[in-house]
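Suppose you are handed a protein chain with no further information: no name, no annotation, nothing but its sequence. What can you learn? This example shows the usual starting point.
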Amino acid sequence: MTDNVTDMPLSKLTPQQAANKASVSRGTIMNAIKDGSLIAMRDNRNRWQITTDNLSKWLSDRSDNASGTIRNPLSETDTKETSQPTEHAIRIAVLEAELNARDQRIEDLKEAHAERVLALERDRDAWKDQAQSLAKRPRRWWPF
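A reasonable first move is to predict its three-dimensional structure. Written in structure tokens, the prediction is:
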């Protein structure tokens, strides 16, 4: 799965992938999701997705509770977030530029819409004037 803006891979894991990275069972991951200690989201196919940041946080919280007996495999240079923070800065800059372009596009569309509304109002008034002038003329019922 990649982000369409920057083609950077999104760091989302399935429960099984998270279990493999954390060296625990899938059931442990599911129990952590169920009790709320591990934050996970469901995708549009109703499958659990876990970010590596949330998994890392859960592992560090878990290791604090277990007196440091569980190692955190994500604390190594396994994730791109910790090894290359400039990628985030680049991605943020790209997204900001895209947001600014969309804001400008919205403003342009608002101006075009306002001009179109004024043109339609002028057209309506012209038709109204024509209808009123035709209504003031006397009617002849018989063609002769």
